[in-house]
From TrEMBL, chain A:
InterPro entries: OxRdtase_Mopterin-bd_dom (IPR000572), OxRdtase_Mopterin-bd_sf (IPR036374). Residues 109-252 form the Oxidoreductase molybdopterin-binding domain. Coiled coil: none annotated. This is Molybdopterin-binding oxidoreductase.
Automatic annotation (TrEMBL), chain B:
GO terms for biological process: respiratory electron transport chain. One of its GO terms (cellular component) is plasma membrane. Residues 8-202 form the Cytochrome b561 bacterial/Ni-hydrogenase domain. This is Thiosulfate reductase. It comes from the Bacteria. The keyword Transmembrane helix applies. The keyword Iron-sulfur does not apply. InterPro entries: Cyt_b561_bac/Ni-Hgenase, Di-haem_cyt_TM, Hydrogenase_cytochrome. The chain crosses the membrane at residues 20-36, 42-61, 73-94, 137-157, 177-199. It is a multi-pass membrane protein.
């Protein structure tokens, strides 16, 4: 009851007082919020690196954000969304070689003795020769290969559709699992891929480039071509294939890159 | 007599000041990404005039070898950039504030007069409301540019899932060029904006923090009613408007 009384007794503020009062309140709030924002930024900048595991090398909060963002954008993924293809004449004659991890560091590799090792659900390993793979229907693709660095190149690849391969070798049960892991024979380079990308109709186990057998530096005898991913996931010289419901280890995800890296 | 005149809404001020650091972080992290394939430059007759960016620039800002870090920052702060922009645009649409922002049919003519005035070539300036003609064009353009950055960003971020956005942006290459060019545009906007704000003075700057500006007015002008926010005066306004 008393308060309204008191107010009436107060002289109304002059315009000058109002200006000062409002300015003071606004600029104080502005300063406090700016300080808060700056503190938040410092916190993020100095945030500890994530605990090294399947992913590593980036600040823990940023990794959480990458994983959440992946979940959001995976809602838009569809196997009906096909990568744009080009006439074969547009394909690069000498496709770019960007990295040789798992190839240049493996002097013991003997291509004549190569067999794809597939880890089965029953813990046994199945060995598949390149002849068996080449006997399957061949699929060609000429598409724009995209590197995480930002460059891209139209390239011409041929091989067996990964989904055809899984059916032919009765690996459907294995492929029920959420992830596939691929490694070079020496285990120096390795990637993990979600089931949906594996089953994408343009995902190939490739053994030809520009109509010829793949060269060593492009991943002979068999490499992955997964057009719905950046180049870092397109493992060359596949040695081992495995399946799991957890993310398999992934070379670049351990270096601070997004695990998903989908396009 | 000095009079308090409301100028910028709280939401406009909030989104303006949130956008400033967020956009700065987007440009900074974007440089980390661009560095990994720094293909752009301006050349005439095979002579390179500008290379984006020279070595000293990268080194000065510690850009090299930070692609993964840049992507991680970029793909977090893109959310803040988008949400903040969406907030401003929705507010501007629904509040009717767009009427003071969008250029009208005279704006393009008048903007020249504003420019001549700012360059001290012309003494008078066309009568203006909250924003003058040049501001209407510039501030509408910057909003469109922001939308452009989101759209071209999506085009190069998910060119397969959002293939139609990529197509709309003229393909993967052109979308990346646009995304880059828009960023350069922000830097130019920023430089001119800072100079203009400095020249416009304290009253103008205060309005973007505190929301009001102080104007000299004679007492019988209708704007005066907005000073004293008592109920009586509100009634007066209502009557006058009626």
């Amino acid at each position: 009851m008393k308060t309204p009384h008191k107010k009436k007794l107060k002289a109304p503020l002059t315009v000058e007082q109002k200006i000062n009062r409002r300015s003071f309140i606004s600029f104080s709030a502005f300063a406090v919020l700016s300080g808060g924002a700056f503190a938040g930024w410092k916190w993020l900048l100095n945030a500890p690196e994530e605990t090294a595991g399947i992913t590593a090398g980036t600040r823990a909060p940023l990794r959480r954000a990458l994983n959440k963002t992946e979940l959001f954008f995976r809602n838009f993924f569809s196997n009906k969304h096909l990568v744009k293809t080009y006439p074969v004449e547009q394909a690069a004659k000498n496709p770019r070689v960007n990295s040789l991890i798992g190839i240049e560091d493996d002097e013991d590799f003997d291509i004549t003795r190569w067999k794809l090792q597939v880890k089965l659900n029953n813990q046994k390993t199945r060995h598949i020769t390149i002849e068996e793979i080449k006997a399957l229907p061949k699929t060609e693709i000429v598409y724009d290969f995209k590197c995480v660095e930002g460059w891209d190149e139209i390239q011409h690849w041929a091989g067996v559709k990964l989904s055809d391969f899984l059916i032919h070798f009765q690996l459907e049960n294995e492929a029920e699992k959420q992830y596939m892991g691929l490694e070079t024979p020496n285990g120096a380079y390795y990637v993990g891929l979600e089931r949906e990308s594996i089953l994408h109709p343009q995902t190939l186990l490739a053994y030809e480039m520009n109509g010829k057998t793949i060269s060593t530096e492009h991943g002979a005898p068999l490499r992955l071509i997964v057009p719905v991913k950046y180049g870092i996931k397109n493992l060359k010289r596949i040695g081992k294939m495995s399946f799991s419901n957890n993310r398999p280890r992934d070379y670049w995800a351990e270096q601070g890159y997004d695990y998903y890296s989908g396009l | 007599m000095k009079v308090i005149k409301e100028k910028h809404s709280l939401l406009m001020r909030w989104t303006h000041w949130v956008n400033f650091p967020v956009l700065a972080i987007m440009i900074w992290s974007g440089l980390f990404i661009y560095w990994a394939n720094d293909a752009y430059g301006i050349s005439i007759f095979n002579v390179t005039l500008i290379k984006f960016f020279p070595e000293w620039f990268y080194n000065y800002f510690h850009i090299p070898q930070r692609l993964a870090e840049g992507m991680a920052f970029h793909f977090l702060f893109m959310w803040f950039f988008f949400i903040n922009g969406l907030l401003y645009i929705s507010y501007t649409l629904f509040s009717g504030a767009w009427r003071e922002l969008l250029p009208n049919k005279n704006s393009f003519k008048e903007a020249w007069l504003v420019l001549l005035h700012d360059l001290h070539i012309r003494k008078t300036i066309p009568p203006q409301k909250k924003y003058n003609a040049a501001q209407r064009i510039a501030y509408t353009a910057i909003i469109l540019m922001g939308m452009g950055s989101v759209i071209t960003g999506l085009a190069i971020y998910k060119p397969v899932q959002f293939y139609w956005i990529c197509w709309l942006c003229g393909g993967y290459h052109f979308a990346r060029i646009l995304h880059f060019a828009l960023t350069i545009g922000y830097v130019f906007f920023f430089l001119i904006h800072i100079v203009q704000v400095a020249l416009a003075g304290w009253n103008n700057f205060r309005a973007v923090v505190a929301g009001f500006e102080v104007v000299e007015e004679s007492q019988h002008l209708p704007e005066q009613v907005t000073i004293q926010k008592t109920e009586e005066n509100n009634e007066n306004t209502a009557q006058k408007e009626a």
